[in-house]
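Q: My labmate handed me this sequence with no annotations at all. I'd like to see what the chain might look like in three dimensions before we decide whether it's worth expressing. Could you predict it?
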Amino acid sequence: MIPCFEYKNLSKQKIDELIVRNNDTDYKIRSQVEAIIDSVKSDGDKALVDFAKRFDNTKLTELAYRQDEIDNAVSKVERPAARALEIAFNNIYAFHKGQLRREKKIETSKGVICWRENRPIERVGLYIPGGSAVLPSTFLMLGTPARIAGVSKIVVCTPPQANGELNPFIAYCAKLLKIDTIYKAGGAQAIAAMAFGTESIPKVDKIFGPGNQYVTQAKSLIQTLSTTAIDMPAGPSEVIVVGDKTSRPAFVAADLLAQAEHGTDSQAILLTSDYQLIDKVKAEIEKQLVDLPRKEIALQALHNSYMMSFESIEELMVFCNNYAPEHLILSVDNPASYNSLITNAGSVFYGHLTPESMGDYASGTNHTLPTSAYAKAYSGVSVDSFVKKITFQEINEEGIRNLGPVVESLAAIEGLDAHKNAVSIRLQQINNR
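A: Here is what I predict for the chain of 433 residues:
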């Protein structure tokens, strides 16, 4: 039997319990990550070498891959795989290129011009997960908008392979992105290294990339412990599949398993207005699981997952929006009918022929998305994530004559006489002419 719980007609308390996930209630993960961060801050490269041996069973003599090592890894990528990466890169580039727009100057009052301009963040760090699955697609998702934005310094950290060599597909992505510096560091220690800098790894201004609960905890902590920002809290992956009488059970099962194989702490959830769909999907999962190489990982993830039926679409979507999924698949005939009901989701996949894996790899949208209900406040990674928007304003004589008295009045209301005087002294000079 599939170890996936079924629910219907739940109390509000039970629903609230189901929505909470990846919660470090005993602060065990937090305390471990704090110790890792402190070690990297104090011991730099030595700590990274020690952690590589301890966590990855890898003995490192240097932290940066040499150019010949990167070139050698690139040469191992066969043409079909290289072509797939190139197509994915081109689609991701095309989608993100359209996000870089110059804003118009706005005359808010006569003689008062305001506008915004983009400036790329100078130094960013990209964390590319390794662990049980290496993710070159994440490298493309982060590196492409960084390049489009014009970031001048891109630092890449990824866990080394067991033999210490660079994964060939990561190397090929580096070639596509024109990035030639990659560091052998993974986990919370890589986040700490990019946040504070070590002898080998430079400090960055903002860190990007998903990871497990340790990586996510490290990203959350460095925001308060350093001057480095993060993209978003992007932890263990999750999906909600919405189904009804029109859903195709084999497709739904495949989508749930695609999420479950990410990791044991992933969540794959089915919400449906058709209770009979649950048994059909379970039967399909049983069939499809048999041949999955990552079957055991998927099974453990299904222990964290569940299927729920609802009396109405509206009730279903209330739960969905409270959960605020990273990925939302509308596996129904008329996905557009749900559109106005969606308020919280990282990325939405419309209809029977749009599996989440298309967005994971090659449709063009970004797969680095907020998890753990952070989709209520965060968006996925985009070109905007790699730029700062600086406001400008210019006021001429007509502008300060028109708007100056308003500012004098507002400053007087707040009792800020120096603010008022900064305007008054200019108006006096103009009037004296």
